[in-house]
């Protein structure tokens, strides 16, 4: 009971927002600290998370090839295999992720309990002795901390959201810390209070969608906690991200099966879009897999339906060769990063809404960034495709915007 009561007291302080710290304070550099510490979510694998992690490692390989880089993620083994060789001194761990999942409280229980444990363990490695060496690396060797962008933290995923506790820890220890391109929706209640207080401790905190921005900043303090920025995938302006293959099909689909109760209804609707666009059973079609197994069923459905010229792009091939988008394609996607990369390439398309509180927020962010794709909703008539990015220079502009925030650390 002693440990549990101690954790609750720490958590209560976090959720109440005691002593939030002054934003923009430049921490004093401490000798002996050489590690650039990244927090991200590669390794599941899921294409967007792998892309963001890879692009930041490319950036650091250019800026700081001599510095050790540690990436903290949920699955460091697969992440190391996927991202090997991008930065010459990169290594992978799961310290912060483990603290969020291996604690005395229920998985994805109240944020005050889980984040309280994380904050306490970061100060006292005796609370989680299996991860003491990782905690000590954070305490004594870390030069800077950077939470990379993505949608892997949200209010009801409290084990993941608890990673924001690294902000108050970093400020307490004088370690520069930023977060870039996050999407935290849906977010409310105690999770929102925790996120607001934690974000206020960062030296820079950007989000990729307006809903997250408004939710974090409308806290009544009158002071902005977060800033709006592009998705982190643009840090290097998407250079080298695309597959070079002249035989890529003119019509592409990426349709997941994990956010709908009736996947067959979703697949039937995707076919109705193809039929509205005049795509016949013998026309070439590409199916993109961003998440293994979850994105495969649409391919099997198309084959069973009678389409006889369907090419499957497994995630492993995409990770090795690049994203299969080219000018002139038409796309149907439920997923967010295929929408970004295809639209940025100038492809026309439609996105299918599968989750109003999560994915619709993501797709709205892509529309703000420059896409003009049409929204397709189950039960509604299939739309015609909308245009992609009208300005081909947007990725370069977004790269400069993201790098301005990163200059705080790098």
From TrEMBL:
<feature type="domain" description="Polysaccharide pyruvyl transferase">
    <location>
        <begin position="46"/>
        <end position="234"/>
    </location>
</feature>
<keyword id="KW-0808">Transferase</keyword>
<dbReference type="InterPro" id="IPR007345">
    <property type="entry name" value="Polysacch_pyruvyl_Trfase"/>
</dbReference>
<protein>
    <submittedName>
        <fullName>Polysaccharide pyruvyl transferase family protein</fullName>
    </submittedName>
</protein>
<dbReference type="Pfam" id="PF04230">
    <property type="entry name" value="PS_pyruv_trans"/>
</dbReference>
<dbReference type="GO" id="GO:0016740">
    <property type="term" value="F:transferase activity"/>
</dbReference>
